[in-house]
Every structure is written in C-alpha cells, then in structure tokens.
Design brief:
The protein contains 27 helices and eleven strands. It is globular. The structure holds zinc ion (ZN).
Length: about 700
C-alpha cells in the first residue's frame, strides 16, 4: 500500500507514514496558536484544484542533493500545520479531507431531498441523517448496548460463551473480541474461499505494548488501565470494582499478547498459514465450543479453515479453561464497550477519544460529527457512496489515461525483469508469468455491490451500524464454497489510497487516489509519472517484494524461485533493510527495517518503473524547462511531493510499532539515494548526502 496500514482483510482508515524533523518546523509555524476565527466548514460542491507539481510547496533554499524531501516539501511543511482533529497532516490527508467535504455534500443532499431517491441514495441518506441526529444518540445513552450487556451478565456457563461471542462477532464492530474470524482465500489454493480464525483480543495497537519494559511502554499500560477503569465507571461500577476489573482485563490481555506473533513475524505468510479442520481446531482449543461458534457467527468451516496463530489459540484456550466466569464476563463487558463507544453518547465517545486518539496519538480535538458520519457511510456503504462519487468526479477520459499509465508501468516491469543481471532465465520466466496474470483495477468496480437486503432506518443510528456490520459478515460468509469474485474491491472508490492483493494477484487504484494533486490531467507528464506512476509501480512491485514474491501468478503461496535466485533476492532485500534501519523516526526510536522492507522495496521499485515508463512516454517529445526545473527535476519533485507530511510525535511512536511504512522523509530520500538518475537530474556531486558510491547502491528490481 502506498500509504495506509493494512491487514490481510481489513484496511484501517486514516493512518500513514510519518516525518521526523518536520514536526519541529510545524510546531514553529503553529506557534502561537492565536485561535484564528475559523469559519465553520461547509460541504464542497466541487473538489479544489492543486497542480501535481506545486512550486509553492518547495523550499528552494534546501539542497536537493542533501535532502530532496526538504527541497520539494519544505514550504508545504511550514504552511500546513496539523489541524487539531488530525493525528497527521499530509498531501494524501488533505485530499482525503477535501474528498470528505465533497462526500458530505452528496450525503447532505441524499439526507434532505428525500423525494425521488434511488434505493441506494435512500440508504446513504438515511444512514447519514441518523448518524447526524446527535440528540437521538445522546438520548439513547447506553441503551443500545443494554441487551448485549444483559446477555453477558447472564452468562452462567462457559459452554454458552461460543454462541454469545459468535452473535457479537457477527454484528458488533468488535476489534477482535477475544479473537477474530472471517473469510479468506486459501493461501495455498487461491481458488478457494475458506473460513479463518485469527488472533485478536487486544485493546492496545500491538502486542509489543504489553511486553516492552521501556518507560514509555510502562506509562502507556498505566494510562490504559486508567482508561478501562473509567469506562467501567461509566457503566455504573463503583471505583474499587472498576479498578479491580480493569486489572483483570489487563492481566488477560497481557497473557493473550504474549502468545501473539509480532508485526514482523506476521509478514511471513508461512507463519500465519495453518490449515486445520473443525475437528483438529476443537482438539487444539477444546475449552471453546467451535461448532456452536461457527453456527452462531454464520461461517462454514468446511472443508478446512486457516488458523493463523495456533499458539495464540492455545493460550486463549488455557485462559478459558482456567479463568472464572466472572473474569470472562468482565473481559467481554470491556471489549463490547470499547468497540462500540464511538457510536454511543458523548461520555463514551469522549472517554474513547481521550485515550485512543488524544493520549496515544496526540490529537487535540475530536473530529466534528459530520466527518465521522462520512467515514462510517464510506465504511459501511462504500459502493453506494462510491457510485455517486464516481458519477460526479471520475470521467471516462481520466479512466482511460490512468489505465494507459498502468499498462505502461507494467511494460516497464516486463522490460526491467529482462534486464536484471542477477536473476536466472528460469526465475525470469516465472516472474514474467506472474506479471502477465496481474489484474489492473482502476477507478471503481465493474459491478457495484447490491445492498438491497440491508435495511437502513432514518430513526436509529446504532441499529444501522450493527445491521451494516451484520450485512458485511453475511456477505463474507456467503463466499465460502463459491468461486472467487475476481472483480471485488477491498477499498471504496472515494478512498485516497491503493493496494496490491497477493491472493488475488491484482492492483487496485480507487478513483480517489487518481485526483489532483496526485494525478493531474492538466499537468505535463513528468510530475504525474513521478507521483502516480510511482504509486502504480509501488503496488505492482508489492507482487515482487520480500512478502509478495512468495506467491505465484495464481495467488498461491508457492516457491517459484531457484534457490540461488532466492538467496540473491534476500541479499538485496537485506541491503534495503540495513539502509532504512539506520534512519530515526522520533527521539531514539529507529525504523524497524524488517517491518518496513516490503514497503521500502516497493517504493524503490515503483519509482524505477515510473522513471522507465516516463522515459518511454516522452522519448519522441521535446521537453522544456518549467518553473526553473528541468523535466527530470520535475519528475523527482513530483515524486517527492506525494509525501509532504507533518506528524505528531505521539503518533510517530505508535507508527514505529505498527506501521509497515517508513516515515515520508525517508521514503523519499531513501529512494533518491539509490537512483543514479536522481543524482544526474540535479548534478549532485560525490559527497552529497543523497549520493552513494555505485557499489553501495541498493537495487532489488
Ligand atoms: Zn505499499
């Protein structure tokens, strides 16, 4: 992914890389925060235009040969302080924010003009209207959770847990209550959709938070326990009980965390693939009634399923066997309130924000209600909203141009594979075969999702959320035993992001990521190829990064490399890991090169491909200097400007643990330093920071 954190199935919203030094600049430019009179935001009728090469964003006093990122983004960093409700602020985030305001307009119309709506407009309009009805949400208070809390309180028998949990997994956004389940393509037979059981159960962003002993991690755990305590008090528990219950939750989560794989371990597809049957799973974790669970959650575990983390399930089983019923009830009560707090009345919303966003991420203010509602409509009814968005913004001409660019990048990859001096002909043949099978998906799906079986009422926001989650659970469950739908998208059309899916072997570029300033139909080619060409190349290279290369063209986890070539590849990947591991993220925290290497390899490979495609595209053209930049310089400034970003130190710390992307400054400079084409474009001399000796260059693809 170019920007976001991603799991195998779930794409988290609004997080991306980070910046080291620039937050100092941002702090300066924001001080003193003389509370400007900000006019209230309004829906946008049109998306604002920013050129794909923005000269006003540059800092021409910086030497590009030492710091390309500063040269391309320096003024942007000064002029774009982080808004108080954001954890970071960057070019992608700004475009997302504009997009959100534009979608707000679409939703506002659909909510207000109720005559002559299409069925999908009714759904997005009424979902939005119910979400915006904060009087009703405040009045409801905790009552939407009453039934679930009563069922937990009534749990008198551990055997009954499986049915209760299955039901909650199906319709509550759980964040992994005890564990996660879902549907995935079988990693070793990508034609099959199978059930999966994954680790979960943690309220902090990663298992590392529970086990690390540095002062900051210890502090996070203390604050977390205080947060849990306050939530229990909101549910009506006296302080001593709430404190004891919070300690219980922490003890249980810590045990689960210790048995969970690290973020780096999870990048190894073999470590998260364990084909089991219902019988073998029941043997592995006998304290939990799996048949009852699958029935309740609506998943068919036949003919087999993937148990991604057996060690976790064994520990979960031990906890279930040993812990008392009151302990299990306490834990369930916590997970259900933690997962649903954002959809409840303000005491719960505020407590959730205070810990998860303010303390953990440094965000000063909660987002206004309309932003949350737009985000949730996009999450729950993405295709209904997406078709409205695409009809208004993504013209056939834009589709044609970006499809063409995607093909050119693919051609560059084919040529590149042919040129590799370290790869044997056998592996090259296999690599080209994989490339030929990659599906390019650009803009939006050919078929929009059918939401007709989902009922959305204008009167009840919370019910709409659970109905939508249940609809999605059932939609996923229905895939088991059916042929894989190769046309399916994992992101909605308005999303400002892109991804590669190894099991599908496809690259996906939603319309939202193909808008100015990322892709600018009015601009010359150089910055467009540097930016969006690089993004396309980045996603394509994911099929051939240290994780993606382990899958073949049919999406199967299968080793198609000769042993010798695999070793050579690993050596090259290690060069990247070593380079990035030297970069600092914040304070004394360095990049974990083993976590970010897939993204770093994709960044470098992507830009090389974009460069080749641009050379090819413009070979018959006479290119002129513009804005005091040569065409080659425009390519690299265009490239760097996708990443302009200001970040909060708190957020950087979390990302250091969970984000597989390096911070933006390093994503840009780390690529430039490995491209002699860059040094040539700016006539950089030996001795400059972004010039390596030829023998030290890292090059994978
Ligand atoms: Zn990526």
């Amino acid at each position: 992914m170019r920007k976001l954190i991603y799991g195998t199935l779930v794409v988290l919203a609004a997080t991306s890389p980070f910046v080291l030094a620039p937050f100092v600049l941002a702090a300066e430019s924001m001080a003193p925060p003389a509370r400007m009179q900000v006019t209230p935001e309004k829906p946008l009728k049109e998306l604002p235009y920013t050129p794909s090469l923005d000269v006003s964003a540059m800092d021409r006093s910086a030497d590009p040969c030492d710091d390309l990122y500063q040269f391309a983004c320096g003024s942007w960093l000064k002029n774009n302080p982080i808004p108080p409700d954001q954890q970071r602020w960057d070019v992608y985030g700004k475009l997302s924010a504009d997009n959100q305001r534009y979608l707000w307009g679409i939703l506002d119309d659909a909510a207000k003009n109720i005559a002559n709506r299409t069925p999908t407009q009714q759904k997005i309009g009424d979902y939005f209207a119910a979400c915006m009805d904060t009087d009703a949400v405040e009045k409801a208070g905790i009552s939407p959770l009453k039934e679930d809390l009563a069922r937990i309180a009534d749990l008198r028998d551990k055997k009954a847990l499986a049915t209760v949990l299955g039901d909650m997994h199906q319709r509550v956004i759980t964040g992994g209550m005890l564990f996660n389940s879902g549907v995935q393509q079988d990693a070793k037979d990508a034609t099959k959709q199978i059930a999966s059981v994954d680790a979960g159960g943690l309220g902090l962003p990663d298992r590392d938070y529970y086990v690390k002993t540095d002062a900051k991690s210890v502090e996070v755990r203390e604050k977390y326990v205080e947060h849990i305590t306050r939530m229990f008090m909101l549910l009506g528990e006296p302080t001593p009980t709430a404190k004891a219950d919070a300690a219980t939750v922490m003890r249980l989560e810590t045990a689960l965390a210790k048995a969970s794989l690290t973020a780096v371990e999870k990048r190894d597809p073999y470590k998260v693939y364990h084909r089991e049957t219902l019988a073998s799973l029941s043997k592995m974790a006998p304290a939990f009634s799996w048949p009852a669970y699958f029935k309740s959650v609506g998943l068919n575990p036949q003919p087999w399923l993937n148990v991604s983390q057996p060690a976790f399930l064994k520990e979960m089983n031990a906890r279930l066997a040993q812990e008392s019923l009151p302990t299990i009830r306490t834990y369930l009560r916590w997970t259900v309130i933690a997962a649903t707090a954002p959809y409840l009345s303000s005491p719960y919303v505020n407590e959730s924000f205070a810990f998860n966003r303010k303390y953990m991420r440094g965000v000063e203010e909660d987002r206004p209600r309309w932003k949350k509602c737009v985000t949730w409509v996009d999450r729950d009814l993405g295709d209904a909203l997406g078709r409205e968005y695409v009809a208004r913004t993504f013209t056939p001409d834009m589709k044609e141009k970006t499809v063409k660019m995607t093909r050119q990048i693919e051609d560059a990859m084919r040529a590149r594979i042919g040129q590799l001096d370290w790869m044997s002909p056998d592996t090259k043949t296999q690599a080209v075969a994989k490339l030929e099978k990659i599906r390019n998906k650009v803009g939006y799906p050919d078929l929009w999702r059918d939401y007709s079986s989902l009922t959305i009422e204008r009167s009840d926001f919370f019910d709409n959320v659970t109905a939508a989650v249940r609809f999605e659970s059932l939609r996923q469950a229905a895939k088991i035993g059916k042929p894989v739908d190769r046309g399916e998208w994992g992101m909605s059309a308005p999303t400002v992001n892109a991804y590669y899916d190894a099991s599908m072997n496809d690259v996906n570029f939603p319309a939202g990521v193909l808008m100015p300033p990322l892709y600018d139909a009015k601009s010359d080619d150089a910055p467009n190829y540097g930016d969006t060409g690089g993004t396309i190349g980045h996603e394509l290279t994911h099929g051939f990064d240290d994780e993606g290369r382990q899958y073949d063209g049919d999406g199967n986890l299968r080793d198609w490399w000769t042993k010798d070539d695999a070793e050579k590849f690993e050596k090259r990947a290690q060069c990247i890991r070593d380079q990035y591991s030297q970069y600092t993220i914040v304070d004394d925290v360095k990049i974990n090169g083993a976590l970010t290497s897939g993204e770093d390899i994709a960044d470098l490979g992507g830009e090389l491909l974009a460069w080749m495609a641009w050379q090819d595209q413009t070979k018959a053209m006479r290119l002129a200097e513009r804005d005091g930049l040569t065409p080659s310089q425009r390519f690299f400034v265009g490239f760097a400007q996708w990443a302009c970003s200001n970040d909060r130190p708190e957020s950087l710390r979390v990302n250091a643990v969970v984000d597989p992307h390096s911070p933006p400054r390093h994503r840009i400079n780390g690529v430039a330093v490995n491209m002699p084409e860059f040094a040539q474009a700016f006539s950089c001399k030996v001795g400059a920071k972004l010039v390596k000796k030829p023998e030290d260059l890292c090059k994978v693809w």
